[in-house]
Amino acid sequence: MKFLVFFLVLRSCIAFDLPRCHPDLNIDKDQYTVSDTYHLGDALPTDAHYDVYGNLFYVKSGSNDDGYYYDIYVVKFKTTTAQKIKGLPEGLSYSVAVDKKDAKVYFGTEKGMFRYDYATHNATQVSDSLLKINMIFVDKNGNKYITNSNNGIEELYLLDGEKKIRFNTLEALNELAIDDNNNFYFIKHEQLFVLKPTQSMPLHIGNVTYTGAGQISFHKDNVFVASDHLVYFHENETGKMKLISNVPDQVTSIAFDRTGDFVLGTRGKLLKYKKNECYIRKTNDSSVYN
Q1: Whole-model pTM?
Q2: β-pair type (153-160, 163-171)
Q3: From CA 114, how far away is CA 98, in angstroms rounded?
Q4: Cβ-count burial of 87 within 10 angstroms (0-12 exposed, 13-18 middle, 19+ buried)?
Q5: DSSP classification of residue 132
Q6: Residues with Cβ < 8 Å from 175, sequence gap 6 or more?
Q7: What is the full per-residue pLDDT of the chain (290 aa) written as tens digits?
Q8: Buried b vs exposed e over 97-120: b needs ≥16 C-beta within 10 Å?
């Protein structure tokens, strides 16, 4: 009798400890479920990025009695608590860029460029405070690019020290991202384009819905666009954008970690999605543990 009770308890524990196999969303043949939720109150998470160590950085934007604010937070690897990064201009920090080549993280602000200090976990200024930055990017070679607004038109520049070199073919941008092949993907007038290193002019890919906050991200050979809806396509099949269902309304950000898990941002929260690994019972009916 004791053996029977032990067997039943053991079987129960195994069954209940297994991951549930009803996914929250599908991407191609992969299935994902929500594993964590980071709550942000009445604010939008924008410009989310994982660094090479698995730390998650994002911009938290909202409004208060003083107007709109933009602050940058970090969720350190294997933790679930977000911490506001110290040393940045209060409410004026707009964007994050990860330098994979040199394993560094940069922040674009109204008062210059800052770099994350992994020893102190604070930000250190690395440019003139007069350099105003709306968006910041780093390509695979470590080159830095920024945008700022000129009479309401977003202009893109390559940084050469303190010198700015203008990209005349890329302006009035809403969102931009640079993949590991140095292809520039960007949204302009609710249309998605790509500018490849071998091209002189951008190639139109398709139309996207842009509602004022969004992000372009990459994982393996897929390009993801989060802006109201979430769509993706394979880089070698740019004319076939696919809509991902069962995502929150008005998605504002997306970022993949090195394992392929990712976060989606929507008003008030960041959702962490992990890939499902379902264990199938070895029986004739191939039932799934839930």
Answers
A1: 0.87
A2: antiparallel
A3: 12
A4: middle
A5: -
A6: 186, 187, 210, 214, 215, 216, 227
A7: 544 444 444 444 444 445 556 889 999 888 999 999 999 999 999 999 999 999 999 999 999 888 899 999 999 998 889 999 999 999 999 999 999 999 999 999 999 999 999 999 999 999 999 999 999 999 999 999 999 988 888 999 999 988 899 988 788 889 999 999 999 999 999 999 999 998 889 999 999 999 889 999 999 889 999 998 999 998 876 568 899 999 988 899 999 999 999 999 999 999 999 998 664 443 333 323 22
A8: bbbeeeebbbbbbbbbbbbbeeee
- Cβ burial, residue 70 (10 Å; 0-12/13-18/19+): buried
Contact between 99 and 107 (Cβ < 8 Å): no
How buried is 230 (Cβ within 10 angstroms: 0-12 exposed, 13-18 middle, 19+ buried)?
buried
Residue 62 to residue 100: CA distance in whole angstroms? 29
Can you give the C-alpha Rg of the chain in angstroms?
A: 21
Residue whose entry in the numeric block shows the structure tokens 């405070």: 129
172 vs 178: CA distance, rounded Å: 17
Rounded Cα distance between 215 and 253, Å, is: 5
Identify whether the C-beta of residue 126 lies closer than 8 Å to the C-beta of residue 103: no
Length of the chain: 290
Per DSSP, what are the bridge partners of residue 203?
Answer: 194
- Do 227 and 233 contact (CB within 8 A), yes or no? no
What phi and psi values does residue 164 have, to the nearest 5 degrees? -110, 130
H-helix or E-strand containing 139?
none
Measured at the CA of 213, the angle between CA 150 and CA 203, to 5 degrees, comes to 70
Residue 9 one-letter amino acid? V
